[in-house]
Structures are given as C-alpha cells and as structure tokens.
Amino acid sequence: VAVRGSGVWVRRVVRAGVAEVGVGGSWVPGSEAGAVLVTGGTGALGARVARWAVERGARKLVLTSRRG
Fold it and tell me: Which residues form a coiled coil (predicted)?
C-alpha cells in the first residue's frame, strides 16, 4: 500500500482469461515483467510446478500455502 497526496495505491492480483494469455507450449513463465504465483506452492505438487517454471526461465515466484 502506498499513500500519496493524490490517493492510495494498492497492487492487485487479477485473473487473466485464456484468450489474454494464450494456450500452448509457447508461454515461458516469468517472460513478462511479473511474477509466477503458485497457489499450494509449499506442497509436493506446487514445488514441482515451481521447479518447472524455474527450468523454463521464471525468476520471480510467489509460493503460497493453501492452509495459511
């Protein structure tokens, strides 16, 4: 959260539709300026997905737990 004289600024996570992202093998995780969010990233499957993303070029990852 950033509070400035002109207002309050908050980053938000938004869902991207399939048409916006595209489908297929051409997407490289982390190729954009953003980060890869892995929900359930602290479990076995999430860790595997995180490794997969890093192997394909992701450099910023956010791993979250489903249980808190």
Answer: none
HEC assignment per residue over the chain: CEEECCEEECCCCCCCCHHHHCCCCCCCCCCCCCCEEEECCCCHHHHHHHHHHHHCCCCCEEEECCCC
Q: How far apart are CA 22 and CA 2, in angstroms?
A: 32
List the chain domain ranges: 33-68
Q: Give the residue ranges of the chain where pLDDT is below 70.
A: 16-33, 68
Q: How many of the other CB atoms lie within 10 Å of CB of 53?
A: 20
CA distance 33 to 53: 14
Beta bridge partners of 64: 39
Give the Cα separation of 60 and 58 in Å (integer).
6
Rounded Cα distance, 31 and 54, in Å: 11
